Amino acid sequence: MDGFSVVALTVISILASVFWCSWKFKKSKEGTAPYPPGPRGLPILGYLPFLHVNLHHQFTELAKKYGPIYKLQLGSKLCMVISSPALIKEVVRDQDTIFANRDPPVAAIAATGGLGILWAPYGPYWRDMRKLFVRQMLSNNNLQASYVLRKEEVAKVVRDVSKKIGKPIEIGEMVFITELNVILSLLWGGTIDAEMRDRLGAEFRDKVSKLVDLLGKPNVSDYFPVLAKFDVQGIEKKMRAVVPGVEEILDSVIDERMKMIAAEGGKSSAGRAKDFLGILLDLKEQKVGEGSSFGLTQIKAILMDIVLGGTDTTATIVEWVMAELLHNPDIMKKVQEELTDVIGENNAAEEFHITKLHYLDAVVKETFRLHPPLPLLIPRFPSQSCVVGGYMIPKHSQVFLNMWAISMDPQIWENPSEFRPDRFLKKNGNFDYMGSNVQYLPFGSGRRVCPALPLGEKMVMYLLATLLHTFEWCLPERETVDVSEKFGIVMRKKTPLFAIPYNRF
Ligand code: HEM
Fold first, then answer.
1. DSSP secondary structure code for residue 425 in this structure
2. How does it sit in the membrane (predicted)?
3. Is residue 450 annotated as involved in ligand binding?
4. Tell me, what's the pLDDT at 269?
5. pLDDT digit string (tens) for 173-205?
6. CA–CA dist 59, 223 (Å, integer)
7. Using an 8 Å Cβ cutoff, are 306 and 483 in contact?
8. CA distance 201 to 195
9. Which of its termini does the chain have fewer beta carbons within 10 Å around, N or C?
């Protein structure tokens, strides 16, 4: 044997011993729990080539074969799919701290650097950012103070719809624009004049749609991190092309606001309804996480999260409610009767009416069950190995919580594919959005529950109450409602809904 072979053999033996020892150590740490069952895939690719477009349907079908917890190898990532309330409770309650972590997709890193709330890893930085958002921006006082901004936007949509009486309107587009305007007005309501706001809104709309679509596209780079630098599908490149445009808009609005602050002697919200940007700029330079300070980069990341997390979700659910009501005229009639009783023919809907609209609340809740905007929530990424339902979940596997399977389970919901709002009336059980009942989690649960839940609920209910109280809605002649869905980061309607408005009174 020559000298080189001896060295090579020694190195290989040392490496093999190190690998063996670390494998043994890992195994002993993991204990004896077995991995859950799951379908076999191809070498290297795993189950990736067999995935369908409507992932939530496919995951539900696989659960029928492999049970409420199963594993899938997707490229180099090991994924776990959990689809029973008892096991989901183990994740979001009993072991919430371990599962409060996330694995940001490449596209999300390209969008915000993972510096917002949505994709930040569980830890001090995420905790502080979330605290800022919840305590400062979404406090009861601020939500109430910003009602005037929501009211203006909702009045604007009423004016727009009134100009189109008797003509078909694309509902999804209308509610997307409205919800985006509501969010933008909450973000920087008083900063810019109406004309500039409309212009920026239109530019933003186009860019936000692109960002949401790119975030929802399955990306090979996420499943084969070694290939990420090649960006095989060009998703990262496309993302990096859209983001500067969004940042430019944010920069111009932030600049505008900074000038106003300077002119007003240092305080951002003087004399105006409190908008989020003003609140964020007041907090500038505070410490977040371990050492980083809350600067413009963090402000832009949080603004992007709010726009991305808040627009498509609220718009999509409003479109689904309209679709189900047009599909079920008897239920539409009951909703409108309740609106007339509570609000009165001569009055406009207001946010204080919301708590009295019990039937509309049940309709919205049933729509969330049947068409959850995030049917698999947002995947969790355990920060250490642990056991769920007697099976091993290794550290840094990707964990999907399949709420869609639970929504469609006949053991839990009688005739689950039927639209029956009555199941959510108070007398039939207690379902809130807070995640107290693990059978029903449209806003998630645990430490990562949607932080904007009170705002999301208000925006959805207020817009629906206004559209349904002010107008009668009909389908165009010979049209029917297609209630099939298209999976994405947010589950939208597959075909756009068109409806014709008429004045109700
Ligand atoms: C119909 C409306 C909405 C629905 C159905 C919804 C749903 C969700 C869900 C399911 C999650 C993940 C929860 C989990 O992992 O357990 C989430 C997280 C989040 N949502 Fe919402 N959301 C809505 C509205 C909003 C709005 C209006 C905003 C912002 C103004 C927002 C901002 C966020 C943020 C920042 C997160 C990340 C929280 C974290 O990771 O700590 N959402 N949302």
1. S
2. Single-pass membrane protein
3. yes
4. 55
5. 899 888 888 888 888 876 667 777 777 777 877
6. 17
7. no
8. 10
9. N
Percent of residues, the chain, with pLDDT higher than 90: 60
Each residue of 283-317: pLDDT tens digit? 887 777 777 778 888 889 999 899 888 988 999 99
pTM: 0.90
Which atom from ligand 1 is nearest to the alpha carbon of 373? 5
Buried b (16+ CB within 10 A) or exposed e, 301-312: bbbbbbbbbbbb
43 CA from centroid of ligand 1 (Å): 36
pLDDT score recorded for residue 4: 45
Q: Which residue's CA is the closest to the ligand 1 atom numbered 18?
A: 450
Residue 24 has pLDDT above 60, yes or no: no
CA of 443 to the centre of ligand 1 (A): 6
Pick the CATH number of 3-503 from 3.40.190.10, 1.50.10.10, 3.10.180.10, 1.10.630.10: 1.10.630.10
Sign of CA dihedral 62, 437, 370, 119: negative
Q: What is the 448 CA–ligand 1 centroid distance (Å)? A: 8
ipTM of the complex: 0.99
CB under 6 Å to ligand 1: residues? Answer: 117-118, 130, 305-306, 309-310, 313-314, 317, 373-374, 377-378, 442-445, 448-452, 455-456, 460
